Each structure stands twice: as C-alpha cells, then as structure tokens.
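PROTOCOL LOG
Step 1. Enter all chains and additional molecules of the complex.
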Amino acid sequence: MIEAQGLYKQFRTKASLKRGRRQKKVEAVRDVSFRAENGAITGLLGANGAGKSTTLRMLATLIRPDAGRAAIDGFDVVSQAMAARSQIGFLPHNAGIYPRLTAVENIQYYARIAGLPDDEVDVRVEELVTLLDMEAFALRRTDGFSQGQRTKVALARALVHRPRTVILDEPTNGLDVMATRNLRVILRRLRDQGHCILLSSHVMQEVTALCDHVAIIDDGRIAISGSIADIQAQTGQEDFEDAFVVAIGQSLEAQG
Amino acid sequence: MKQFIAIFRKEVLDNIRDRRSLFFALLYGPLLLPALIIGPIALGVKKHSINFEQSQTIHMEAPERAPNLVQYLREENIRVAPVDEDLKSGLEEGHFSMVLSLAEDYETRLRQGQTATMLLHYNGADDESTKLYRKVHSILSRYGQQLTAQRMQIRGMDTAFLKPFHLIEENVATGNDAEKMLARMLPFIVILSLTMGGFYLAVDTTAGERERHSLEPLLSLSVSRQVLVAAKFCAVMLFVGLSGFLSILSAFILFQCLPVKELSALIQPDPWRFFLVFLVSLPLVVFFTSAMMLIATYAKNTKEAQTHLGMAMMLPMAPFFIIQFANVKTSTVLMAVPVMSQYLSIEKVLTGEAQALAAVVASVAGTLFCALCCYLITVLLYRKEDILNS
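Step 2. Run joint prediction.
Step 3. Record the structure below.
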C-alpha cells in the first residue's frame, strides 16, 4: 500500500546554475496526496511534465521530497528508505537493462542483490520467464531487444523479489498492441494476487482499460482522484477524456 | 556481503564481455605498451654499444703495404680483408662497412720518420659502419701513439716529454642514457597501463550506468550505497591491478627475452625486483581506481566522463616529464605525492638504489590518503539524488 501526503519537490534549473546566486527554481511537484491500495491498480494520470515521474521517483526512494511524506506499507520513504525499498519493485521510464547480460542474467542480478537464497534464484527466474512469456529470448543478450522484450525483462527484474508494491513509470510506452494487451493481463494477474500496483500514464485509453483507481495530476497537484465512475460523476462528464479535461480546469470547447 | 559479491560478479562479467574494455585492460597496457616502448629502447642500447670482444672485418686496399698495422689490428680483434672490387661502388652498395686505404708511399714515409697518409672510408648514415668507425678510430689512435713512442725511443727521447699529464676518467653514473631511460620508462608503462586498464570499466559502472538508465532501478533496490560503491570499486580495482600486474610481467619477460647483455649493468631482470615494482605500484592501483571512479561519477554522461578522464590521464604523465627535464631531488614531502613518488620509487627499485623507510611510508600513506579522499567523495556523490540526473 502506498500513502502519499502533501508531497512537494523543487529542482534548480540547469540554465540558472550558471548565473550563480540568482537561481531559478522549478516546482515539479507542489502538492500530491493519494493512496494506492493493495489488490488494486492505481493510475497516476497526467500530461507530460505534470509531475508523474517525479512523484514516482519520490515513492521509489530515489529522490527525497522537500516537504510532505510518503510511506510504502507503512515504511517512510525517507527515514526507512531501505525497508521501503525491499517492499517495492520499480520499473523506471526506460527499461534500463544491461545490454551485455542475457535476459536471465539481468533478472538473476537483481534477485541476488535483493537477497534471494542461491537455490531460490533459478526457481524464481524460471517462474518469471514463464509468467512473462519470455522463453524465446531468455538466454540471449539483451542488446538489440525490442522495446517489448526490454520491458518484460525490466518487469521481471522488478518482480523478482516478490514485492508487495509495484511501481511502473509509463510501462506501455513504446509497446505494440499485443505487447500492451499482454502487459495488462500480467498486471491484472498481479493485482488479483493482492499486489498494490501504481502506474503512471498519459494515455486515457490505457487508464480506463486497466485502473481501478485513478489520481489525475496537473501542474504538480492532484486535481481529482477516485474510481473512473467517481471521476465521471464528480465532473459531470460521461466520457472519461472529457472528465480529465474538466478536472484539470480546461474548457471543453477550447480543446475541440 | 552477498549483495557485494553479486554486484562485483556482475561488473566483472559485464567488463569481460566488453571487448573494447578488455582490450585496453589486458592487451593494450600489458602487451602493446611494453613492446612498443621497451623494444625500441632496448634495441637502441644494443645498437649503440660497442662489443670489443666480437671479431669484425674491415676491408683494406693493399694490406701488404702495412703488415705491422694488419698485425696490430688482428690483435685488437679486427680482421683485414683485401678489397677485391671497385671501392666506390662497393661502399655505396654497402658491401664494405669500412675501407682503409693506404697511400702508395705509406711504407717509405713511415720508415723515414715522416707523416704517412691513410684514408678511412665509412658510411655515417649506417649504424653498423658508424660503430665500426668509432672502434677502428680508437685503435688507430692507439697505434699512432705506439709508433710515436717507438720513434722517440729510437732517438733517445723520453716519451713523457710528449705527455704532460696522464688523465684518468671515472664516470660515477651507472649505465648510459638509454639504460636510465629504460629504468624510467618502466614506471611510465606501468602507470599508463593502470590508467588504461580501469578506464572503460570506471566509465561504464557509473556514467555508463546512468546513461543506460540502469542506475535508477538499481538504486531503488534495498542495497546500501556504500556496498554498491564498494563492489563497483573492487571490480574496477581488479582490472586496474590485473593490468598493472600483466604489464610488469610482460616487461619482465621482455627483459629476459631480449638479448640485451648491455642492460645487465643497470637493470637486473630478477623476479624479486619486478615483484617489488608491483608492490610499489599497489597503492597506486587503489588511488587510480578511486580517482577514476570519482571522475566518472562526477561526469554527467559517458562522453563527458571520457573527456574528463582523458584529460586527467595527462596528470600521471606529468611527473615523468618533470623528472626527465628538471633535476628532481627526492625529499620526503615529494614522496608523499601520489604518482610522483611511485615514479621515483620504481626507478630506484630497478636500479637497486636503497630507499629510506620514511620515504616508503610517505609514499604509501600519501597515495592511500588521496585514494581514500576520492573514494569518500564518490560515496557522497552516490548518496546525493543528483546522481540520477544525466
């Protein structure tokens, strides 16, 4: 389970670094609060630059919030970062797998770092290869893999230590139709196993097809959150895309 | 500890599979460098030294005019062969290394106590011919002195009259310039190999990892940054150390294999001495590893890391040129400077000069201290969230 309360994060801009004292700060995340429950798929929906990735990075303990707090299964992401990390599997925006290692070696590497006993490593890797349908390319070096294959390897790697919470940053980015459908099946299966799944996306269709719960983020703030039906009811729109436009405070006419 | 081993193993495996990186770690520094640098110098030493034991042949026009000279040359291990073809073309085509011609009236003038003329042809552009020239020239001067002494004795004069002083020369330097160059080249090779050996892995484990976006998921695992840096550090250090070890080993083998008797005066190629060279360079292995890690961690991407490291690699070369061109006196303070101290130390180990304990301690402590600083800053950088920003 993920709980975020009033998260705030600002960055110094690169150009201003050169000017020295007069640094310009950019507020990437201004006020983000939401909950992602176990046994549910929660979507963080927002336009490009709305603050999705920064929020996920804070939850994955990669960066520290400047204000507010967040906890993974009760472990604070700042003060109990190591405990929080062992609860999460994180799939970043880019797969970030090692090209000179095979798919299996990539997964084994994370299994060993996560502290799986040696005899369990191979069993678990085998399970994931079957689960994610990776038999055809499991023993090949990942250099030259398609985007879909990379995502599968990265996802297997994120799941290898059986984390309760899975955080995915735009997981369907660059995937074709079939790969996207397969990924949905996998994520639903994980949800049904009781995992807490949080994914970010800027694709409406994606979110409506998959998410039980949605938090719409705009300009670093959570504009609205709830189930898809809730959001449609609150905004008075039948179409979810229209609901999104209304939620982020834009006029429907202007958007066409 | 298990995490440490997992990360260490992966980095080593990853580097072994990277052909370019492996080439620089195991072939370039250890094999190519010594062959390219030591080979020519060693051969140069051989070329420019004169072997007085080996018998050589010069050609002489009309040797029958000077039987005494021929005899004298033979005693000096120079055999005389008559010129049996055209002198000019024979010299140009390199059939003769050297030709000594005697004037027709050589014998008569010599007998009358006058100055006789002889003509020495040699080829200054040919190393063999030049060596022979130097040798024959010195033999002929001695022969001339002998004749002078004989003439004076016959006329009842003391030979001391012509010799106001007797000069005894003693050169305290061991070995010649080329040998010294060799003793100085070895640390140069070792140090260059050390930097080349870890270069790509250092870039790959940090800047490369960030560029491939694999650092982000790695840092989201429950592994402490200290363990992460320590494992990466040890993996890089393994290759830096291996590269250094192999370069010293190949230099040792080169010294053994090259027929360079002339070197033995200065550099004894005994295994113990080369092992000492390896021991002296060990603190440097630690220092270079941490310095390269720091630079690669500080850089934003692979390209920047390579540029920074490329420039930083000039620094280890600096002491070589400073020692070469400025007369550096070894002091304890100087021995605390990493790289500089190893240059001086390795040279001394090779030439068998004794080293003060204080100097050795200063060298090891100074280098390891700098290594520790770089290492700690690297860990600090890994703890900052800026590490993710490329």
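Step 4. Note key features.
Residues 35 and 229 of chain A are 17 Å apart (CA to CA).
Residues 177-192 of chain A form the longest helix (16 residues).
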